[in-house]
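[Solved] Which block belongs to which protein?

Original post:
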Amino acid sequence: MGAPFDISYIFSFLPKLLSTLSTTLLIVACSLLVGILVGFLIALPRLYKVPVLKTCAEIYISFFRGTPILIQLFLFYYGLPEILKLVHLDVTRTPVLIFVILTYGLHSGAFMSEMIRASVTAVDRGQVEAAYASGMTSYQAFSRIVLPQALGIAVPVFSNLVIALLKDTSLAFTLGVMEMTGKAQTLGSISQHFIETYIALALIYLVISYTIEKLLLVAERRLLRHEDSSNPVKKMFRLQKNSSSRRIIAELGQGKGGSGL
């Protein structure tokens, strides 16, 4: 049993937990960079239906979407050094944070690739054909027609993925990384005020998630600021965009459920 509940501990724990916020945000930022790059590379074979690479991409996506992130962390941290020893590479002294970022980056890449692929294919093919008919090159059609609409579709999905990644970082402490959850574990063990510790931690995650959601909502509105809701054609596109976003979120949601994936 822990110590009796004392609300004052919540306020005293907040600054102590915030001292490790930079580590959590570093994991999120670096993992997103890796995830976007990997996701783009994985999405290309599926978009262009490259035979062998398409199959490899599907296996990659199935593995990272179908296994828990905690298992992936253990596999990369304990298994990767053993595999690299076979080719005479010693990475046992590599900082654990590198393994954590690599795992989260590859994990996010599987979901990013699905987001990119689904967002691009959600754009009406007829618009691309009309662009070609008007004399546009493939690059012009993609940059002027496909990309703006795909970004508008992808932002709500990207917001969900970022928030899910933020929550998933709470598992990094299992490998000894002193991020916010690891700090909370330490504070709770020392003070025996576990409830107060986790309430403070939940408040921080809630505020950060809310801030990310609002910032990306602003980004979405800026991307779609050219739309005129009074125009029936653009109103139809907005309905189509919202429908596409919900469909992509539903597809990703089958495998992404917070830190338990």
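(Second protein starts here: sequence line, then its structure tokens.)
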Amino acid sequence: MQIELFDMKNNRKTYILLILSIAWALLIFYFCTMSSDKIPRLRIPHMDKVAHAGFFFIQSVFLSLLFNFQTKKNYFQIILLSTLVAFLYGGLIEVLQSKFFNRTGDLYDLIADVLGGFVGAMTYPTVLRIYRKIFKTDT
């Protein structure tokens, strides 16, 4: 049994979303592992948690759209999968921060990552409807 990685019909969308997802993941990694003294200090309470949630919100929207165009999964499965990726990637970053980047891994950062990922995944059907209206397509 042969499994195709990319659906040829959605090839362009797939590559764009794959590139966006990878680039965004690298951006998340960069900001989450940069030295603490280089991070701007804002006097807004819990702004770092908002940033974590925002990063993973966007990542989850990209991934959910990618999964939508490339799999036969239903909305619930895509939301679950995207949230799981947010949990795993956020958890990995928190472990790497404490082990290799002289930063502290924070459970509350991971919670913000997962919540941002979940909300992003929940938002993806709306983003998909907007996409379909703009480009007048059924995919």
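Accepted answer:
You had them paired correctly. Confirming on the second one: Confidence is low (pLDDT under 50) at residues 1-8.
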